Amino acid sequence: MAGTTGTGSGNSVVSWICWPEGLGCVEDGGIRLATRLEHGDVHLALTASTDARFRRRLLAPLYVLAVLPRSFRLGRRTTLEIAELADSPLLLTRRDFASREWFDAACQLAHLRPRVLLESGAPSTLVALARVGYGIAVVPSNVRIPRNGVRAVPLVQRGAPIGRWLSLAWDPRRFLAPYAEDFVEELVVYTTRVSAKPAFARRAPALPRPKETPSDQSF
Questions:
Q1: 55-69 and 80-81: which strand pairing?
Q2: Residue 108: in which H helix or E strand, if any?
Q3: Rounded to an integer, what distance in angstroms lies between the CA atom of residue 159 and that of residue 146?
Q4: Is-above-0.85 flag for pTM?
Q5: Partners of 47 in the beta sheet?
Q6: 152: confidence class by pLDDT, cuts 50, 70, 90
């Protein structure tokens, strides 16, 4: 592939995507990516936003996970009700993460005031701290989770999963290079294959898949 296209992603998405030559990656909180896309700072954005200004291809469900040591009592659960976190020290992402916005909204509905031990813009750091027992990390499911030492458990509210579908979005008013279009198609195939592999994905209640129309997907 030739040329240069900027691609925006929520933090830690790059941990499971191999970016082709010609595509640069900009990490940012999910909430700010829509602004970057509108201003032309990036040409593609990995986001859970449903902003009607953009076209998109659905990639995979994005869950809010509690990551905790396997030795923790709650780590043995298949899912965790958000109210069960009431007495636990929490390691949270910053408020400009979309997953943090969903978590805060769920806490408000549950009348839960979380015990926030730390806020960070690096979800991998939160996972590392959870691994050594500093608290429970609350992170989006596109974060790389170590195979040993911790367990990722989907958070639910009254049995319903907390999350949305992740999509690759672009602004139809701006030119998108052919190699970027190819990248979109390849990424859809790749994420369909890998999104079902993590153990939590097999345990989590299904997130309803949004409807896609032909106009949503056209370049």
A1: unpaired
A2: helix 98-109
A3: 26
A4: no
A5: 167
A6: very high
